[in-house]
Design a protein that fits this description.
By secondary structure, the protein is of the alpha+beta class. It folds into 2 domains: 4-229, Rossmann fold (3-Layer(aba) Sandwich), CATH 3.40.50; 237-356, Nucleic acid-binding proteins (OB fold (Dihydrolipoamide Acetyltransferase, E2P)), CATH 2.40.50.140. Helix content is 23%, strand content 34%. It contains 8 helices and 20 strands. It has helices at 42-50, 92-102, 107-120, 136-148, 166-183, 194-200, 218-223, 228-233, and strands at residues 4-13, 16-26, 31-35, 57-62, 65-66, 77-80, 154-158, 186-190, 203-208, 211-216, 240-250, 253-258, 263-266, 278-283, 288-290, 301-312, 317-323, 326-332, 343-348, 354-356. Bound molecules: adenosine-5'-triphosphate (ATP) and magnesium ion.
Length: 373
């Protein structure tokens, strides 16, 4: 196990700055996921930690030792990439043993470690096969095994599941999470799949254009996104964003008049300087419910939606439509009365609303749900 510290790390290729001023603390045994859109710098950052990419500025520390200029091979890291890069002419056993032979371990030690790794990843029965006789998921497990077998201090994964089909991805996701529990190693995992990030991470790092947009637990990022970017990136279907104007700021929050019609008092830290200014209200599809006429509950945000279409997933149904000029997606818990067209009245609690200023920053919510842990 090891802790990893990034202090003001930066990376430039010639005059192109691709990472700027990255500060991050990764603790012993933590599972940290880097997410962000394509080109945001996730792989470059991981490769800098791995020693495969030169660091242009700042310091990288592993277990309190500055390793900027330490060779990749001497950093004691296990790396797994999107392409498995197994040796095709070697069996699984030989593939696993190879890094240990390079490290000049004894035959007995090699045999023991290979057997342990194979058993951990449930691939004892595959040891005598060549990679071409394995499925994609099995190959990926061998690639992970080859990283584990060296007992590295830190694991680095770069989109290891992106070549697998959906079902295998889910299986491997669970396997990697279990593996992390069993081994207790520090893991740094790159993905652009926010579901992988949400389900696997202790801590998520959201990157955008080479800078850190937000760091936090999955719960934090979901319930307290610091910006509109993070709010839109985490969660599926995406958070709805509705235009509006601030009418008043008072101690219980901010009154917002939406372009779509409704007025709502959102419980956020009030800021009088925003009165009269445009603002964006964010609300997750899952926080809407169809408001039924029979129910006599005081509902604070009401929207009338012109339905476009309805998507049934079995356990959940989403309705798509327009409120005024704005596109809205909402979860419908009781889809029966909803047809693919017509009007539906949606309701949401103001406590579930987010507000974003014109620069994209979020206003602090007063009643965000407590952490899951
Ligand atoms: N060798 C290089 N020379 C110049 N620019 C590069 C080089 N490698 C990467 N970049 C640039 O650095 C930026 C970050 O790239 P990086 O591969 O880290 O992105 P990423 O977040 O991993 O994206 P993806 O999700 O597509 O893998 C991109 O704009 C990319 O074009
Ligand atoms: Mg990448």
């Amino acid at each position: 196990m090891a802790d990893v510290r990034l202090e003001g790390l930066s990376k430039a290729y010639g005059t192109i700055q691709v990472l700027r001023n990255i500060d991050l603390a990764i603790d012993h045994g933590e599972f940290v996921v880097f997410v962000g859109p394509s080109g945001s710098g996730k792989s470059t950052l991981l490769r800098m930690i791995g020693g495969l990419e030169r660091i242009s500025g700042g310091r990288l520390l592993i277990d309190n030792e500055v390793v900027n200029d330490v060779d990749a091979a001497d950093r004691n890291l296990g790396m797994v990439f999107q392409s498995y890069a197994l040796y095709p002419h070697m069996t699984v056993r030989e593939n696993l043993a190879f890094p240990l032979r390079m490290a000049k371990l004894s035959k007995a030690e090699i045999d023991t470690r290979v057997a342990q790794t194979a058993s951990l990843l449930q691939m004892d029965h595959l040891l005598d096969r060549k990679p071409r006789h394995l499925s994609g998921g099995q190959r990926q497990r061998v690639a992970i095994g080859r990283a584990i077998v060296r007992e590295p201090k830190v694991f680095l994964f770069d989109e290891p599941l992106s070549n697998l089909d959906t079902e295998l991805r889910v299986q491997m996701r669970v396997q990697i999470s279990k593996l992390h529990k069993q081994l207790g190693n520090t893991m740094i995992y790159v993905t652009h799949d926010q579901i992988e990030a949400m389900t696997m991470a202790d801590k998520i790092v959201v990157l955008k254009d080479g800078v850190i947009e937000q760091v936090g637990s999955p719960h934090d990022l979901y319930h307290n996104p610091a910006s509109r970017f993070v709010a839109g990136f985490i969660g599926s279907p995406k958070m709805n964003f509705l235009g509006g104007k601030v009418e008043a700021a008072h101690e219980s929050g901010m009154d917002v008049r939406l372009d779509a019609g409704a007025v709502v008092c959102v419980p956020v830290e009030p800021d009088k300087s925003l009165v009269g200014k445009p603002i964006t209200l964010g609300i997750r599809p899952d926080d809407f419910s169809p408001s039924s006429a029979e129910k006599d509950i005081a509902i604070d945000l009401d929207l009338d939606l012109d339905l476009d279409f309805v998507e049934h997933f079995g356990s959940v149904t989403y309705v798509y439509g327009n409120a005024g000029k704005e596109a809205v997606v909402a979860k419908a818990s009781k889809p029966d009365p909803l047809k693919g067209s017509g009007k539906v009245r949606l309701a949401a609690s103001p406590a579930d609303c987010h507000l974003f200023m014109t620069d994209g920053k979020a206003l602090r919510r007063l009643h965000a749900p407590a952490n899951w842990n």
